[in-house]
Amino acid sequence: MMRRSYENDLNELHIEIIKMVSLIERAIEDSVRAFEQNDLALCEAIIDQDKTIDDLEKSIESKCLWLIAREQPVASDLKKITTGLKMITDMERIGDHAADIAALTLRLSVRNSFADSGHIPQMAEIAVSMVHDAVTSYINTDLELSKETRRRDDDVDEYFNVIKRELVSVFRSNEDAIDNAIDFLLIAKYLERIADHAVNICEWVEFSVTGKHKDAKVF
Amino acid sequence: MKGNTEIQKLRTEDLHLYYGDVHALKGINMDVHSRCITALIGPSGCGKSTFLKTLNRMNDTIPSVKITGKVILDGEDVYGKNVDVTVLRKKVGMVFQSPNPFPMSIYDNIAYGPRVHGQKRRHELDEIVERSLTSAAIWDEVKDRLKKPALGLSGGQQQRLCIARCLATQPEILLMDEPTSALDPISTSKIEELIYDLKKEYSIVIVTHNMQQAARVSDYTAFFLLGELIEYDTTNAIFSSPKVQQTENYITGRFG
Fold first, then answer.
1. Is the pLDDT of residue A115 over 70?
2. Taking CB atoms and an 8 Å cutoff, what residues of chain A touch B215?
3. Which pLDDT tens digit goes with each residue over B232-246?
4. How large is the average pLDDT for residues B123-146?
5. CA B72 to chain centre
6. Is the ipTM above a cut-off of 0.85?
7. Residue of A nearest to B214 (CA)
8. Which of A102-116, B32-46, B196-210 has the lowest mean pLDDT?
9. Residues of A (88-127) whose Cβ lies below 8 Å from B
10. Taken in order B38, B42, B44, B45, is the CA torsion positive or negative?
């Protein structure tokens, strides 16, 4: 086996990406739980943790760029490194949105008693499962799982539309609840974006094997 | 980078070569496309240089060599009975790893081939020398010292001079055996640019150990291993999604 240090660097990169995916997976799970249980201490912890995710993104980015500069990778190696570079942007955004949901939950600590239909937790459950499965499909290079995960995005979008309609009726009927309703709408929007980023991760996982991105041959 | 045209210039059919008992090429079937650059890659001893030399019969001079199969250039087998090897080598020129100018003036180096082929008129030789040196992107550097010894040039200049010497006999195919491996990075990029320009008029086959060079300059890449042609495809396909695991292992540096 040649190029031992190159192999080591590629392994280290993989390990660091796995570390980052586990952190964002936990961040989004925690933020949904903190929202549902109104756990303010957990919200603070999620917001603090976001810096660690941002630092990991920079470290992975730097590793990828140095690997490209030093090793001039081709074929499957280059696909893997490119996938890393592209994925971390989506992962960092998921981390940001988890922190955004935590920040909104802090604001929502005084909640008005308008009827919450319970759709946000249902939507969150799918979004969290999509992040989980996108991450698993990366770790196991599981293209079937990644394709199946992408399909769930339609359900999330559907929930978003339902929640939006519900909140519009709150705006109309309950003036005191408007402030809270806006925050609920933002949380739903963040969940919808998180699901989109999970889809992006799946698409990069598929690229790492096929060289195709959204069915177009890229490399 | 795709070739300008996809016309087949040269083809080998079940080409085998033996150095005595050593089976160095094992049934190579390969097309060389017209006005394209074809790179031959593979670890040392894989047969790529041997294959290159079969294309203009440079192996003929080695007594123990036995060749079977065909090398078909423009429809004619170059190992056919009526082939004049001197004419063949005029058509299929070769540039070697180390620059090898003749120990004579720059002018005489370029005029050597045309003179061998009967060109004696001074005026026409002058034209050939200027045209060849211009095509090899070295005219401006040597036009004021044409009568000076070629060996006084730098390594990179000597290599471009050798390419000019090759062009002087108006070949159709240029064979290059690691033409930049003895050169510094600046001379290497000059030769690479030159190769890229030359493909407008010539079909080029280049042996290289530099994977990035193959990826940069060639339209097609052939991967050789232990005398076999393992994979042959467009350079883009080889360097993004090779079909054979051995190719992948080689180009990513995992064996060789």
1. no
2. 74
3. 999 999 999 999 999
4. 96
5. 16
6. no
7. A74
8. A102-116
9. none
10. negative
Q: Is B128 among the domain residues?
A: no
Q: DSSP class of residue A72? A: -
- Would the pLDDT of B226 be above 60? yes
CB contact under 8 A, B248 and A6: no
3-state secondary structure of A133: helix
Q: Which residues of B touch A2 (CB under 8 A)?
A: 253-256
Record: contact A75-B211, CB cut-off 8 A:
no
Closest of B233, B220, B232, B225 to residue B250, by C-alpha: B225
Query: Which chain A residue is nearest to residue B256, measuring alpha carbons?
Result: A2
Q: How many other C-beta atoms can be found within 10 angstroms of the C-beta atom of residue A154? A: 10
Range(s) of the domain holding residue B32: 8-98+165-251
Q: Using a CB-CB distance cutoff of 8 angstroms, which residues of chain B are in contact with residue A71?
A: 253
Selected for mutation to probe chain A from B2, B216, B236, B252 (highest A CB count within 10 Å) is B252
pLDDT in tens, A79-101: 999 999 999 999 999 999 999 99
Domain contains B60: yes
Tokens of A31: 């933020």
Has residue B40 been placed in a domain? yes
Q: What is the CATH number of the domain that holds A55?
A: 1.20.58.220
Strand partners for B16: B68
Q: Looking at residues A200-209, what average pLDDT do you find? A: 97
* Count of structural domains within chain A: 1
Q: What is the CATH number of the domain that holds B35?
A: 3.40.50.300
Domain that holds residue A148: 4-217
pLDDT of residue A91: 97
**Domain-located, residue B26:** yes
Shortest Cα–Cα distance, B253 to chain A (Å): 7
* C-alpha–C-alpha distance, residues B239 and A97, integer Å: 38
